[in-house]
Automatic annotation (TrEMBL), chains A, B:
Bilayer-spanning residue ranges: none
Keyword Disulfide bond: no
Any coiled-coil regions, as ranges: 35-66
Protein name (database record): BTB domain-containing protein
Keywords tagged on the record: Coiled coil
Origin species: Picea sitchensis
Pathway: Protein modification; protein ubiquitination
Domain named BTB: residues: 76-144
Amino acid sequence: MARDYGEEWGKTMRMVNMTCISCKDEYTTSSAGTCRECYEEASETEEELKKEIEELKSRIAFLKMWASEAMLDDYTDVSLQLSDGSKIKAHRAVLISKSPVFKAMLENEMEENRTRTIKITDFSYEVLRSFVHYLYTAETFPDEQMAYDLLVLAEKYQVKHLRTVCEKFITSRVNNDNAIMSFAFAHQHNAKHLREAALSLIIENMNTLTTREEYHELVDKDPRLVVEIYESYLSKQVNTAAKEATSIC
Amino acid sequence: MARDYGEEWGKTMRMVNMTCISCKDEYTTSSAGTCRECYEEASETEEELKKEIEELKSRIAFLKMWASEAMLDDYTDVSLQLSDGSKIKAHRAVLISKSPVFKAMLENEMEENRTRTIKITDFSYEVLRSFVHYLYTAETFPDEQMAYDLLVLAEKYQVKHLRTVCEKFITSRVNNDNAIMSFAFAHQHNAKHLREAALSLIIENMNTLTTREEYHELVDKDPRLVVEIYESYLSKQVNTAAKEATSIC
């Protein structure tokens, strides 16, 4: 009887598994990952990246070491003054280097330069303290509300790095409940990434849009923005229809 | 004739290779790495680590932004003065927070605090400039000689972070040509890791030890250190002999 070697081979193929060096489970050809050499190389890369992260963190720790002391220091040379008269001390050199607005205030013949006092009236002590703290430490902040406030301050004083960090932070936290509010905020402060993320989420959930309180508030406050939402929704529907038509043809 | 299925199976096993998802080469059971799931997970981890590195680098860039401006700033409040009378300007708050020695000088009733001038006579302008620059930026330095000088300065002013960074940098560059000099330097400045690395390299190359000029210089200058080298060499030989004896038994 002639043996069917093809069938034999096929059976064997299915039975030969390899053991994953990482999770220790067996795997078959269809779910093969890497050879051992590439695995070892990748592990080394991961180790090196982790080492680099540790080094960078230690540099940051060193750089921000003086922040807490510096802001209490008698030898600060500028004050940021709030509307209730309370002050936050800082170093002119730090403010100047981080913000072109502070630079203009503190290098030219302006009242701020003569009095060494910058009046900031629209923010709370806590927010302003966090803002100055960020200029010294680049340390991230605890909650969304602070990120919104700091984005506005960063925009006002043109601290680009902080503005970007705040926008990323808020964008990563956009959800159904805050999408409309985030969209309006992003529009007001020209935050493109946040605007896109919020709009995309709103459009994905159009069926519940008009049931939301924030929606009606936005209709009252800024109907043009509501029109933008509907225009984007319509445009997406038209695109989807066009794609479907093409795939049918 | 009875077929030998075992032999057939063995042949097939050797022929079934899988393709590495990373290098695209085929591999066999004996050089199997990971399954696809683990490979994908590892790739994601790598991406995340790289992202974290980018973020940390951007924080560092933001933190050290003021360094170049700050050190030229008219509003610095301390000077480091070299023996030729030249000065490097700095901020009291930065020096105090990075060095307990500067802190003691600038916070107590000492001459340095009254005159706001710290005299540093044993170093060149270039080295002192790099030292102050490091306090503001945590930026690494270009060459070994600078690392040696900065380690000595960091030791004198107790800037631990910089001391560690310098020691790592020098240790990573120990070779046959500088091992004896590095060993002597490490001994003098109590740099344990550097000392171990240098000693280990010297012992590996004992056959050329006495041919080296630095060896004879060390015999003249600090014979106790040379004794330490021989003691370590002897101890290593005794250990190796003991291990060999055990393996024979």
